[in-house]
Automatic annotation (TrEMBL):
<keyword id="KW-0949">S-adenosyl-L-methionine</keyword>
<comment type="similarity">
    <text>Belongs to the RNA methyltransferase TrmD family.</text>
</comment>
<dbReference type="InterPro" id="IPR023148">
    <property type="entry name" value="tRNA_m1G_MeTrfase_C_sf"/>
</dbReference>
<keyword id="KW-0489">Methyltransferase</keyword>
<keyword id="KW-0963">Cytoplasm</keyword>
<feature type="binding site">
    <location>
        <position position="112"/>
    </location>
    <ligand>
        <name>S-adenosyl-L-methionine</name>
    </ligand>
</feature>
<protein>
    <recommendedName>
        <fullName>tRNA (guanine-N(1)-)-methyltransferase</fullName>
        <ecNumber>2.1.1.228</ecNumber>
    </recommendedName>
</protein>
<dbReference type="InterPro" id="IPR016009">
    <property type="entry name" value="tRNA_MeTrfase_TRMD/TRM10"/>
</dbReference>
<feature type="domain" description="tRNA methyltransferase TRMD/TRM10-type">
    <location>
        <begin position="1"/>
        <end position="225"/>
    </location>
</feature>
<dbReference type="GO" id="GO:0005829">
    <property type="term" value="C:cytosol"/>
</dbReference>
<dbReference type="InterPro" id="IPR002649">
    <property type="entry name" value="tRNA_m1G_MeTrfase_TrmD"/>
</dbReference>
<keyword id="KW-0808">Transferase</keyword>
<keyword id="KW-0819">tRNA processing</keyword>
<feature type="binding site">
    <location>
        <begin position="132"/>
        <end position="137"/>
    </location>
    <ligand>
        <name>S-adenosyl-L-methionine</name>
    </ligand>
</feature>
<dbReference type="Pfam" id="PF01746">
    <property type="entry name" value="tRNA_m1G_MT"/>
</dbReference>
<dbReference type="GO" id="GO:0002939">
    <property type="term" value="P:tRNA N1-guanine methylation"/>
</dbReference>
<dbReference type="InterPro" id="IPR029026">
    <property type="entry name" value="tRNA_m1G_MTases_N"/>
</dbReference>
Length: 238
């Protein structure tokens, strides 16, 4: 899958993309990330990308020309893939979105700065507006990295484990069960006996119950969207 990212701060992406699982995914050609500096498409000696808003008021607004030129210069006219604007005004990104985007071969991510974008970018260029949560950041770069990360781990082969992202918290609208590793006893806090039993059916059953309980306690809103079996309801009633 290819991500074309458009930003005024392209350097922000280097460290994160050059570490951990995403670097492996890039090296294995499972994902490709091209970061483009919008300023390169701004005209004039000073490569101006923002101006004060018409009608007055504080802050600066991103100009339409550099953004249109950058995106059309890289992706053609009309652009060949969905163009996602990262903005707190967008719909809130979920695990379902991460799974759905992972099925498409190419997306563009447009990162904003300043007070906002000239509205014509929204109306005539962008195809989707996404927020990563109900808070306001100084720019769209972190949200773009959040999308790249969350989408990539749903692409087959990116996570080493063959089950991949299947067991993730939120994968089925359930939070994940608790994990334990060595030592068996740490400061007197013991690993639940059942995990040492070697009985895989019982372990799976225990994990499902933990997952259901945890979701019930922490995120009851998710349970309404989860596909629960009769056995799951029985576990919750215990
Ligand atoms: N830009 C600033 N805040 C944001 C948010 N919460 N989500 C996406 N883009 C943003």
């Amino acid at each position: 899958m290819k991500f074309d990212v458009f930003s005024l701060f392209p350097q922000v992406f280097n460290d994160y993309l050059n570490s951990s699982i995403l670097l492996k995914a890039i090296e294995n050609q499972l994902i490709e990330v091209a970061v483009h500096d919008i300023r390169d498409w701004a005209s004039g000696k000073h490569h101006v990308t923002d101006e004060p808003p018409y009608g007055g008021g504080g802050g600066m607004v991103m100009k339409p020309e550099p953004v249109f030129h950058a995106i059309e210069g890289v992706l053609g006219v009309p652009p060949e893939c969905p163009i996602i604007l990262l903005t707190p005004q967008g719909r809130v990104f979920t695990q379902k979105d991460a799974q759905n985007f992972a099925r498409i071969p190419h997306v563009a991510l447009l990162c904003g700065r300043y007070e906002g974008f000239d509205e014509r970018i929204r109306q005539h260029l962008v195809t989707d507006e996404i927020s990563i949560g109900d808070y306001v950041l100084t720019g769209g770069e972190l949200p773009a990295l959040v999308l790249i990360d969350a989408i990539s781990r749903n692409i087959s082969g990116v996570l080493g484990d063959p089950d991949g992202a299947q067991d993730d918290s939120h994968a089925e609208n359930l939070l994940e069960y608790p994990h334990y590793t060595r030592p068996e006893n740490f400061r007197g806090w013991k690993v639940p006996e059942i995990l040492l039993s070697g009985n895989h059916a019982l372990i799976a059953d225990w994990r499902r119950e933990q997952s259901l309980r945890r979701t019930w306690e922490r995120r009851p809103d998710l349970l309404e969207k989860a596909a629960l079996s009769a056995a799951d309801y029985a576990k919750l009633k215990k």
